[in-house]
Every structure is written in structure tokens, then in C-alpha cells.
Amino acid sequence: MPWCNMNVGLRDVHFKNQDIPQLRSELLLSGDLFEDPCFPADQTSLGDVVVENVVWKRPKDLCANPQLFSSAPTQSGVKSGKMSSPWVVSAISVLGGMRELFYMVMPDSHMQEWRDDPSYEYLGLFYFCFWHFGTWTFVTIDDRLPTLDGELMFTQSTDKGEFWIPLLEKAYAKLHGSYQKLEYGHVTDALVDFTGGVAETYDLNFSEEDVSAQLNHLMETISHELSSHSIICFKINVSCHQLMKLFRMKLCSDKELHSCL
């Protein structure tokens, strides 16, 4: 899936008309932490499925020294929560491995990080950018996250002190209307929202008679797309044991391809 550069045709669009500089100014004057009226810390933001004993907590209530990033974003640092949607987890994992794309979705990440600076005043406000209705749109959230029994309910980092993942997912849930609205979807849908690119799906119906030739064609297609800097994801439902065996052999034999995937 090819993606577009954020600087091309950028328009300053704020979701729900929540202007970030204005919000920051108001919070600095009041001295309060941000509480988002457009995505409140209650059942309406979770959706129709009622879960008992949900407590919304800020990162500082979950660990002593919260950070957006404990290290550079990676694919392996993404962990599914009890109520995560697999397609969202997969898309966030892909984004974590694509450094250039990641900083399009989370602009000014260094300015949003917690800082040990006496002049820095934490506001509890974060913002992300998604491709929405043909333009890059800023989505602003507060830092209150839903927890159950002291644990984050949705997607999170393997490092309990790192919070870019649950905050990103919260912003994406707000864009859709609630966390429940993320229950069903496709990883390509999220990647379009994360990249502004165009998704293309290949339905692989391999015949038993000519598996090897079709597999070679598939690998040539993948190599071509990778050379064009496309993002490639797989969903494999295999009933043919021979196909699965050949796929693994081919993937393992192509070291360059394996490292990209």
C-alpha cells in the first residue's frame, strides 16, 4: 500500500473543532489538567457494551514515571489488552515499525513527551493526526485511560511505563466514536487512516496443481511492492499443508524479504 506525504495538501483541520493552541492556552491559564468533553471518561466513550468497575486513570496513576516512549517505537513493543481488537493491534504494530510514518501520525512527539523541566507544565493533553475524509485531521485527547483491576483494558506497550500506544488507540477510538466502534474492521482500513495511502487486497486462491509457480509469482509481487516502499500485511488461512510448507521455505530462503516482513 503506497502512502502519501503529510506535507502534500496539508490543511489544518481539527476534529470536533478542538483547536490545540487554544486548548493549551486555556489550560495554562486555569492550571487544570485537560478533560475532553468530546470524549469523556465514561461509558459513552466505551460504547454500548457495559463493563463493570471500569476506572479511568491518568498515566501518572499507573506508574511513577510515565513516558510516551521508553525507547524508539517498534513492532514488538505492542501488546494486546483484554478488550483489544486484533486489526487495531496489528495496524499499530505495523506503524511502530515504520519510523517515518509514525511521526506523521504523532507530530511534535518530542514536545508531547513528559519532561523533567521546572518550566514545563503538564496539561494532560495529547494529539494525533489521521487521514480522515481526504485530509490530515488532528484528534485531541486527554490522558485518561480505561482500566480494569488496575490494568489497561485495551492495547498497550510491553513496557508498563510507555504510553504512546494506548493514547494513540484512544485518539483512533475517538475518531470512530467509541472504543466499541473499533471492534470490527480490517488492518488495511487503519493503515489508510495512518498513512493516507491506497489499499489493495490480493485474494490468494492457490490451486493444488500449480502451487510452486503461483507462490513464485506471489513472491515477485511482494518484492516489487517492497521496492516501491509499500506496506505489506498478511492474513493467512491455510488448508493446504503443502502450500504452508512451501511458503515458509520460500520466506526463510529470502533473507531480504524476511527482514522486511
Automatic annotation (TrEMBL):
GO MF annotation: an example: calcium-dependent cysteine-type endopeptidase activity
An example Gene Ontology CC term for this record: cytoplasm
An annotated GO BP: proteolysis
SUPFAM superfamilies per record: Cysteine proteinases (SSF54001)
Domain spans labelled Calpain catalytic: 33-222
Domain of life assignment: Eukaryota
Family named by the database record: Belongs to the peptidase C2 family.
Protein name listed in UniProt: Calpain-5
Organism of derivation: Frankliniella fusca
